[in-house]
Amino acid sequence: MEGEEDMVANMANISAIIKEMFGFHWVGFYLVKGNELVLGPFQGPVACTRIKFGKGVCGSSWERKETIIVDDIDKFPGHIVCSPLSKSEIVVPIVADGEVIAVLDIDSENYGEFDGEDRGFLEEISRIIVKRE
Ligand code: SME
After folding, report:
1. pTM value?
2. Which of 34, 37, 44, 101 could bridge to 26 as Cys pair (CB 3.0-4.6 Å)?
3. Domains plus CATH for the chain?
4. Whose CA is nearest to atom 2 of ligand 1?
């Protein structure tokens, strides 16, 4: 990201490097547009394009303004199924001036893939994205 201030360009490369290094099923961003999230840069299978505030893991992370780790997506009420292969998920909000402007969503084909270490590094990435903006 050094020398690049465009948020979408940085999101595109972040999705690519995380997907390539860790091989997760789906890695990408949803951008806040009005009262919903709209699909942004991602790597992986085709995904749902719009998610309402408070809906699914992504919309809940936006509403709560906090990272959500789901060990088993079948146990998260209202989880939005984009791919039947996803088993666990982490969603990190990207916050600028106190407002969520996007979320970073990563899906894994394994149960219980994500922990506090993932949360720490991904939250750091979300802060860097905003600083570059
Ligand atoms: N499962 C997410 C929807 C996005 S896809 O996983 C790419 C959710 O419940 O918000």
Report:
1. 0.96
2. 44
3. 7-132 (3.30.450.40)
4. 80
